[in-house]
Amino acid sequence: MPRRIVVISAGLSTPSSTRLLADRLATATTDALVRQGEQSTVEVVELREHARDLADHLVAGFPNAALRPVLESVEQADAVIAVTPIFSASYSGLFKTFADVLDREAVTGTPVLVAATGGTARHSLALEHAMRPLFAYLRAAVVPTAVFAAPEDWGASDTTTSLEDRVERAAGELAAAVAARPLRARTDEFDDVPDFTALLKG
């Protein structure tokens, strides 16, 4: 059974460097899993497409029909790749709203890779003082390497510090964490529904 990887991208534009980084991390993770003999599927969640759904959830207290399957996908994921743009030295408001509506047990113990993009390398510290503590609060298993991409990182060729090297290292850590975990049990919400014929028989 393939491992489920859910990618959360909080980019606001189309195309966005946030989504580009998310895609690179997802590809590198699936490749790393293949090398460990594991197959995987990838589901990308573009939070910008659910901005109104998230606001509705905050007001109503429950997810609408469009947002519910997104939250369920995160809860059932074998791994999560979370990527956000950095604004005002922290994750975006859109990303924080998504974190606010997640069930507090949604990613407990789930391997998570955190990553971010920003206009300057000075924002890279936000991964350690904002992103990592957020997922620690949610009790996720965040991998050691976090990936930040500033404008100058795209196309960098230094083999010791290039973005590609950091992506590969982080993806390898995530793949190893996933492969070390037992397969998550797949549940069906209708498993406990009694057979209709049996009900008629009393």
UniProtKB/TrEMBL annotation:
Occurrences of domain NADPH-dependent FMN reductase-like (ranges): 4-154
Keyword line: Flavoprotein, FMN, Oxidoreductase
Alphabetized SUPFAM superfamilies for the sequence: Flavoproteins
EC number: 1.5.1.38
One Pfam family per UniProt: FMN_red
Any GO molecular function: FMN reductase (NADPH) activity
The name this protein goes by in its record: FMN reductase
